[in-house]
Amino acid sequence: MTTDESLKRLFRKRGWYLNAGIPEGTARAYKKRYMENKLGLETQIKILQACGFLVAREMEWEDQRSPERIRRKLEKMLISQKVFWSYDIDHNREIPDEALIENVLLHLDIDEIQLLFKIFDRKKIKNVWLERILIQEPLYHAQNRLYAFLFFGIKEPDRYIRNKAIKRLKQFQ
Predict the structure, then answer these.
(1) DSSP-derived secondary structure for 88-157
(2) 69 and 62 in contact (C-beta within 8 Å)?
(3) What are the residues whose beta carbons fall under 8 Å from the beta carbon of 29, sequence distance 6 or more?
(4) What is the pLDDT of residues 64-89, one digit of tens each?
């Protein structure tokens, strides 16, 4: 039975507070606050314990902002979009950081890209962008301009991208 169901059952009884050692005025205030959804969880648990209820199973909480959860969410989104169609994805194996960053930058929206910055260092994301996406310059020019300006604080993205392209060409000569 959930906490809510237990409290509903308890408050239906007359004199539910008598054997719990709770004064009548306090009991009425608790019931009123419960009906108005203003009774805190700690207070709910204390009332149930005082009235002889035992916790059958401990509640489990998971932080939705944890890096592991964000990573799993991004991986699921990429897999559902069939981004890794050529990879042999084993559910027990993680996708490498660089592949995850690259594919999120290429295939997902700005909200998901911002989640990358919660789990990876800005420097690491920028390095992946420079080494894997920026080198494909004409193909992803609009995205590169957006990323340079929005995420990496580059004031003149066109000039920056052009300079990186020229530098890369000089490496091959």
Answers:
(1) ---TTSPPPHHHHHHHHHHHS-HHHHHHHHHHS-HHHHHHHIIIIIGGGTTTTHHHHHHHHHHTT--S-H
(2) yes
(3) none
(4) 668 888 998 999 899 888 887 766 66
Q: What is the pLDDT of residues 11-53, one digit of tens each?
A: 888 888 888 888 999 999 999 999 999 988 889 888 888 888 8
Taken in order 131, 136, 141, 142, is the CA torsion positive or negative? Answer: negative
For the chain, the domains span 3-50, 67-172
Long-range contacts of 20-28 (CB under 8 A, 24+ apart): 20/47, 20/50, 20/51, 20/52, 21/50, 22/47, 22/50
Q: What is the pTM of this model?
A: 0.61
Q: In the block, which residue shows the tokens 């920026």?
A: 134
Q: Which residue has the higher pLDDT, 156 or 6?
A: 156
